[in-house]
Amino acid sequence: MSYEPRFHVVLHQPEIPYNTGSVGRTCVAVAAKLWLVRPLGFRIDDYYLRRAGLDYWQHLEWEVVDDWPQLVANIPESRHWYFSKKATHSYTEVQYQQGDALVFGCESQGLPEEWIHGKSDRCLRIPTRPEVRSLNLSNAAAVASYEALRQWEA
Hints:
Elements: E1 7-12, H1 17-30, E2 32-37, H2 47-53, E3 62-65, H3 68-74, E4 80-83, E5 89-90, E6 101-104, H4 113-116, E7 123-125, H5 137-153
Parallel strand pairs: 1-2, 1-6, 2-3, 4-6, 4-7, 5-7
Helix pairs in contact: 1-2, 1-5
């Protein structure tokens, strides 16, 4: 199924198929395109990936790219919002625009340090209590995606 995405959700080197499947389901719900940047911690035809996305996967607009430069060729870095527990700005402090990309790192490592170093104005944090190291990847993508929608539909 093809549609004009409102925005993009990027998963850099995702490792867990269930998380990616759940993010895919959220992307269908909010009309976002899902981008997966290799290497992936699973096969695209993985049973668990499809299982987590249930019957929504057929409605998902998605693309896999081999590396970061290939993603940037499709979505300019000026449109990226980087989500990191190391960021100081809250995800609610910025104005999302149609066509922006919400960029999330892999479950075990997050985003590469060099991507967020020197880009504090583009790095966002979803606040959590100190007892929580980080949110689950699929939860973080959903929280951020629905904040963008809230801004546009308010």
